């Protein structure tokens, strides 16, 4: 029994290592050449495996990309943990998340363009999109929730609604960059982060951004 378990464990470890080699090779090739210019033959050559082995793990190149995107999404909770462990304001934490996007886009542009194309595919797959969007909402919700006791986050809208709005701006800004409609990435993402930080902060007296401070309340009805 013990020998059987050991053999099974070694087999599973080899499978894991082969899969990691394929992902590592794909990551490097996407960063160097871009997704569209990288072929499956390129990947298997770099990973030192056969085409048959590739298809034992991934249906196609798109499946590799989805797996890489998933690994980044899996790191998001840890990134949030690190931000919450540091003595930062809510605004500083929001800016840090937007700054990370800029750094990734500048240092690994081709790879970042490859992995973020999954955001565009979400538009055609509502169920998958909902699951991925929810992970962003939960992540941003943790940032905002930590700021409530410190008086840094407004209470006149629900935490979930605010988290949804932060997610919308975050994802849409990345999409604009992918469409090459953002001329200066540093300026655009800084502006987006500043807008979000101001939008989630408690409204000052008479601030028209408040639900009853302007013409309409949070339910869309007149505040007068």
Order of helices and strands: HHHHHHHHH
Strand content: under 5%
Number of domains: 2
Predict the CATH topology of the largest domain.
Tetracycline Repressor, domain 2
CATH superfamily of the largest domain: Tetracycline Repressor, domain 2
Largest sheet: none
Question: How far apart are the termini?
Answer: 76 Å
What best-fitting shape do the alpha-carbon axes yield? globular
Instruction: Give the rounded overall mean pLDDT.
Output: 85
Alpha carbon gyration radius: 22 Å
Uncertain runs: 205-224
Find the count of extended strands (DSSP E, 2+ residues).
Answer: 0
Corresponding CATH architecture of the largest domain: Orthogonal Bundle
Discrete helix count: 9
Structural class: mainly alpha
* Share of residues in helices: over 70%
Text of the CATH class of the largest domain:
Mainly Alpha
The quaternary state of the protein chains shown equals single chain
